[in-house]
């Protein structure tokens, strides 16, 4: 089968399309014929080596977390899936840039029926990250105010939609070019971070979802109400700043869950939230897809088409 692999740490130039042995479904696993796999920042961060101290790779390594496809076989002890079922999920540790994927059944759920495979593949990692940041870690409720940094990106676009669905007041940062797009997702207020400091507009916020880190994160403490929360995905927040502003600050890591995927699937099938696909690339053009996402200006998700 074909797969994209890297043999040492580096950038997009290290990606190679290679023939590799087909995996088998071991106990507790499903074997999925992958139709599409999405591209995420975590893919190239892991490949670059910047995270090797906490998440070292074993080479050769196949990148890719979230996918959509069709079950080829099920391993011992697996119930609820059979050959021919359309599924989507997020496989732990990478491995989705491939034609066949063996992954734990616990991170797989039925594919939303109204989505095609490219649309479905875009949702598991970004959708679950947004859900867990807002509701599990952020405890967002109807009537609260949330500021989402990077609202037009992969996670941000789902976060804006989910916060709007929950009944929160949604503020989102983005470029002026993305203002109408963010409003179409449910943002009540858009903030052009290039035009003026976001803290001059956002005040007394209950929750900040920080998908950026750095200076953006540091300045975000000042917009929170005492007792508010900052949930970060890109960089651990300062405990000192959190204490000084009397807020809660957490660095989260998404935990893949079939239950979470099923909840998202219902909203996706109902059209309550929608996947945003900026570009599609064939599997063999993974390098171009990485170069695109590294530009930092993509709207929504980039997806690799593996099978049609």
**CATH A-level architecture of the largest domain:** Alpha-Beta Complex
Mean pLDDT over the full residue set: 96
Number of helical regions: 9
The radius of gyration computed from the alpha-carbon positions, rounded to a whole number of angstroms, is 19 Å
Largest sheet: 7 strands, mixed
How many E-type strands?
15
Looking at how many chains there are and whether they match, the oligomeric state comes to single chain
Question: Which fold name is given in CATH as the topology of the largest domain?
Answer: Quinone Oxidoreductase, Chain A, domain 1
The stretches of 5 or more residues where confidence is low (pLDDT under 50) are none
Question: Which features does this protein show?
Answer:
2 domains, Quinone Oxidoreductase, Chain A, domain 1, Rossmann fold, 9 helices, 308 residues, 6-stranded parallel β-sheet, alpha/beta, 7-stranded mixed β-sheet
Q: In words, what does this structure look like?
A:
- The protein is of the alpha/beta class and 308 residues long.
- The protein has two domains: 2-123 and 275-305, Medium-chain alcohol dehydrogenases, catalytic domain (Quinone Oxidoreductase, Chain A, domain 1, Alpha-Beta Complex); 126-251, NAD(P)-binding Rossmann-like Domain (Rossmann fold).
- Helices cover 27% and strands 28% of the residues.
- It has nine helices and 15 strands.
- Strands 3, 4, 5, 6, 7, 14 and 15 form a seven-stranded mixed beta sheet that branches.
- It is globular and about 55 Å long.
- The mean pLDDT is 96.
